[in-house]
Amino acid sequence: MITLPHSLAQAAHVAAVLVVVLLLALAGRAAARRLRQPEVIGEITVGLLAGPTVLHLLGPGTFDVLLPGPVLEILKSVAKAGLVLFLVGIAHRLALPASGPDRRAGGWVAAGALFPPLLAGVLLAWYVVAGGDAAVRGDAPLPAFVLMVAVTLSITAVPVMARILADRGMSTSAAGRLALSAAVVIDAVGWLLCMLAVSLGSGSFAGFVRSLSALAVAGLCALTVRYALRTPAAHRLFVQRPRTAAVLLGAVALTVALGVEHLGMTAILPAALVGLAIPAGAGTAWERPVRTLTRAGNALVPAFFVSTGITVLAHGFARVSWGLLAATVLLACAGKGGGGYLGARLGGRPHRTALEIAVLMNARGLTELIVLQAGLAAGVLTAPLVLALTVMALVTTAATGPLLGLLHRAGTEPALAPKALATEGSPR
């Protein structure tokens, strides 16, 4: 849930930290551009390195003074709010009648990018168990361990993919629409499977049932939002007072997303559902308020990457073997890339579009890290395995930009659409 400052001094502390975080993200984006990487890769890398670097250089005592627990929680709340607003705008673009993804093709892409990676995760779990290293295997029940590892290889990061698509002007391309819509479905299924794995590890199915209930609530809230926005009163408000409408729409999106998260589901899915529920169409009354939301969210998305990254590697991890690292990366790439390509082809997409989709589905980013944190906190995953999976997430996400560029240079990438989010406050 959202955490608010308790005093003026704490609010000033949060503001100062937020400025530093955004400056770090700016530096990360600049470094990524020089390396010809998507800018979001720089933001993720800076976020992951910020915590361990500052902790190592200054020590735990000074680190806690600069970033005490309450301030970090407020920073996370601000970043989460920005992510929700950004995803509302991204999902709304998927609802445009002229650019909505084909449902049949989207279903095949989602299936292809979900089931083969799950199988690859089962193979990785078998590799770990067969290796006999107790430090990597841990002592979680075998069904919980296998399912959690399978989930970690099936994740595709909606926020990271959305940023990559925006950076490359692919938000309205055939590959971009299909990949992002499939990623939303995979995120929902993956989160449910993650909760099931945690439940199996604890011996209780209460968390899984709670997540199913939260998913139902999210769908009901989205339908309510869609019905309310189609009323004449809502239309007049959006036409006559677009800024007020944007504030109200943002408040509704935050309430739904954070409320559903409190019930046991990630805030990403309900935010996307609210965006899809907003009526779409060129020149409609809802377009201007949605653009305002996207600008506000886009400005705060770097804080999500940095603040989340601070908590991921801010404590030491055990050493991990090169064999485990190689197996993790290879199985992850084979499962997502091969499955995404196969799904796109079965969905009737041409070879070049299927290649783009295969590359995009391998972008895992911080959604992967959130799942890893859940598995580590529940005792289902161990520190060495989390480190290997973190490296895998960085490698597969960092490879997305160069591979897309390679497809473009080879003449296999169709002409990119104009940068769709440039008019919505994107800094690129």
UniProtKB/TrEMBL annotation:
<keyword id="KW-0812">Transmembrane</keyword>
<dbReference type="GO" id="GO:0015297">
    <property type="term" value="F:antiporter activity"/>
</dbReference>
<keyword id="KW-0406">Ion transport</keyword>
<feature type="transmembrane region" description="Helical">
    <location>
        <begin position="178"/>
        <end position="201"/>
    </location>
</feature>
<dbReference type="InterPro" id="IPR006153">
    <property type="entry name" value="Cation/H_exchanger_TM"/>
</dbReference>
<dbReference type="InterPro" id="IPR050794">
    <property type="entry name" value="CPA2_transporter"/>
</dbReference>
<feature type="transmembrane region" description="Helical">
    <location>
        <begin position="298"/>
        <end position="318"/>
    </location>
</feature>
<feature type="transmembrane region" description="Helical">
    <location>
        <begin position="6"/>
        <end position="28"/>
    </location>
</feature>
<dbReference type="Pfam" id="PF00999">
    <property type="entry name" value="Na_H_Exchanger"/>
</dbReference>
<feature type="transmembrane region" description="Helical">
    <location>
        <begin position="241"/>
        <end position="260"/>
    </location>
</feature>
<dbReference type="InterPro" id="IPR038770">
    <property type="entry name" value="Na+/solute_symporter_sf"/>
</dbReference>
<keyword id="KW-0813">Transport</keyword>
<feature type="transmembrane region" description="Helical">
    <location>
        <begin position="369"/>
        <end position="395"/>
    </location>
</feature>
<feature type="transmembrane region" description="Helical">
    <location>
        <begin position="78"/>
        <end position="96"/>
    </location>
</feature>
<feature type="transmembrane region" description="Helical">
    <location>
        <begin position="207"/>
        <end position="229"/>
    </location>
</feature>
<feature type="domain" description="Cation/H+ exchanger transmembrane">
    <location>
        <begin position="23"/>
        <end position="404"/>
    </location>
</feature>
<feature type="transmembrane region" description="Helical">
    <location>
        <begin position="108"/>
        <end position="130"/>
    </location>
</feature>
<feature type="transmembrane region" description="Helical">
    <location>
        <begin position="324"/>
        <end position="348"/>
    </location>
</feature>
<feature type="transmembrane region" description="Helical">
    <location>
        <begin position="266"/>
        <end position="286"/>
    </location>
</feature>
<dbReference type="GO" id="GO:0016020">
    <property type="term" value="C:membrane"/>
</dbReference>
<feature type="transmembrane region" description="Helical">
    <location>
        <begin position="40"/>
        <end position="58"/>
    </location>
</feature>
<keyword id="KW-1133">Transmembrane helix</keyword>
<feature type="transmembrane region" description="Helical">
    <location>
        <begin position="142"/>
        <end position="166"/>
    </location>
</feature>
<protein>
    <submittedName>
        <fullName>Cation/H(+) antiporter</fullName>
    </submittedName>
</protein>
<dbReference type="GO" id="GO:1902600">
    <property type="term" value="P:proton transmembrane transport"/>
</dbReference>
<keyword id="KW-0472">Membrane</keyword>
